[in-house]
Amino acid sequence: MEYRKAGESGVFLPEVSLGLWHNFGDVDNFDEARRMIITAFDKGVCHFDLANNYGPAPGSAETNFGKILKSDLAAHRDEMFISSKAGHDMWPGVYGDGSSRKNLIASCNASLRRTGLEYFDVFYSHRYDGVTPVEETMQALIDIVRQGKALYVGISKYPPREQQRCYDILRQAGVPCLLSQYRASIFDTHAIDNNFGPAAANGSGIVCFSPLAQGLLTDKYLHGIPEGSRAARATGYLKSSEVTPERIEAARRLGEIAARLGMTLAQMAIAWLLADKRVTSVIIGASSVKQLEANLDAIGHDAFTPEDLHAIAEAAMVPGVKY
Fold first, then answer.
1. CA pair distance 200, 222, nearest whole angstrom
2. Where are the beta strands (DSSP E) in 129-248?
3. For the chain, which terminal residue's Cβ has fewer other Cβ atoms within 10 angstroms, N or C?
C-alpha cells in the first residue's frame, strides 16, 4: 500500500480506502463484510469511511463495523483512521436530517454508540443543506473536536462558495478542515473542475468517492443489468435509467484503453483519479473479497502519458451529457 499526506496536515491516508456505503448493512452478508474489512486492513487499508445513514437500514453499517472492530481488530484501533458523517436523512422528525447543530451533535453521539468507539478520527458535515448557516454547522464540528469526539473535521459535497466559507471559519477557530470529500470519476468531473482547487489552496486533503460511477466504470453492465447488481436492487443508488446505451458504449471504449494499458476498467478508473496528486485517497466499495483485491491492484498504475489522458477523456464523452 502507498500512503499520501492529507493536505497540509501530518496525517497520511492509504491511496485506496474502504467505504461502507454499500454491502455492509443489515440486508448484506455479515460474514463477507467481515472478511472484506479484515482483508483490507491486512493489505494496508487503514482508512474506513462510514456515515450515520449507511446501511440499509440506516445505521446498520456502523453497527456491523463496530461488531467486527470489537471481535477482530480492537487491538489495532490506533493503527486505523475511522471517519463518519452526518447530514442526510437518518431518523423521523424534523431533527433527523440536515446540517444543524442539533442534528450533527446528536448524530455524532449516536454513531459513537453504534460503532463502540470513543472518538472518530475525522467527523464530516455530509452536505450543505441550503438552509442551515455555514457558521452554525462549522461551530458544531469545532465543538465536536473540542469535546474529544473527533480528532479532525471534514466537509463533503459543499458548493465552492460555501466550501471556502467552511475553510475560513474552521481555520480561524484553530480546527482546520483536514479532508474534503467529493464524488469524482472519469464520468463525473464536476468536483475536479470546481472543488479540488479550493481544497488544495486551503490545505485540505481531498478524498474521492464513487470512483467507479456506482459500477458503470466496470465490465458489470456491458451486457445489460445483471441480477443482484446495484441497478437491479430496490435499495441501490444506481438507477436502471442511468445504465443507458450511450454510457455502456463509453464504458466499452474505456475498457479497450484499460486493456491496452494492462488494467481492468475498474483499476484504470481508480488509477486515473490517483494520477491527480491533489487527491489524498480514493474510497472504493466492494461486494466481495475478490472484488476488493482486484481494485486494490490499481495502486501503482497512476503514471499515464498525456496521450493516455487525452484518449480517456475522449472515450468518456457521452452525447447529450453536460460536462
1. 36
2. 150-156, 177-183, 205-209
3. C
Please state, in angstroms and rounded to a whole number, the distance separating the CA atoms of residues 189 and 186.
6
Q: How far apart are CA 322 and CA 172, in angstroms?
A: 37
Which is nearest to 283 in space by CA: 82, 66, 121, 79?
A: 82
Q: How far apart are CA 18 and CA 226, in angstroms?
A: 24
Cis bond upstream, residue 56 (ω within 30): yes
pTM over 0.70: yes
User: What is the rounded distance in angstroms from the CA atom of residue 179 to the CA atom of residue 189?
Assistant: 18
What DSSP element (H or E) covers 282?
strand 279-284
Q: What is the CATH number of domain 3-215+273-298?
A: 3.20.20.100
pLDDT of the chain, 323 residues: tens digit per residue? 999 999 999 999 999 999 999 999 999 999 999 999 999 999 999 999 999 999 999 999 999 999 999 999 999 999 999 999 999 999 999 999 999 999 999 999 999 999 999 999 999 999 999 999 999 999 999 999 999 999 999 999 999 999 999 999 999 999 999 999 999 999 999 999 999 999 999 999 999 999 999 889 998 777 655 555 454 445 455 555 667 888 888 999 999 999 999 999 999 999 999 999 999 999 999 999 999 999 998 888 888 999 999 999 999 986 555 54
C-alpha cell at 275: 494520477
Nearest to 160 by CA among 209, 200, 123, 122: 200
Report CA dihedral (70, 115, 48, 229) to the nearest 10 degrees. 100
